[in-house]
Specification:
There is one protein chain. The chain is mostly helical. The protein has helices at about 5-20, 25-35, 40-45, 55-65.
């Protein structure tokens, strides 16, 4: 893929992530609103997929912006490896039963 195309995909990815977080959407919520598979959206947000115009429009509509906003120059933050820390609710904690 040409370097310029990679730059554009990174800008789209960074803008999708920024707009999603500003609106308080999780990846799951945005994927559902845009009618996309969650794994596909994750690849979009990592600039690992060459999206179609139709997908750009779906994302823009779900984010309530004009499609052109996704093309604004932006950069992705450095990737953090591994899973994010799990949030554990009291109900999710395992029962501690002493066995004798």
């Amino acid at each position: 893929m040409p370097a310029r195309a990679e730059e554009v995909l990174e800008s789209i990815a960074a803008n999708v992530v920024r707009l999603r977080t500003v609106r308080g959407y999780t990846q799951e919520v945005l994927a559902e609103h845009a009618g996309l598979d969650l794994r596909y959206l994750q690849r979009v947000e990592r600039a690992k997929v060459n999206l179609s115009v139709a997908v750009l429009v779906q994302l823009a509509d779900a984010l309530e912006v004009a499609p052109g906003r996704l093309f604004r120059p932006a950069s992705l933050p450095p990737a953090r490896r591994g899973r994010p820390p799990a949030r554990r609710s009291p109900a999710a904690r395992p029962n501690t039963i002493s066995r004798r």
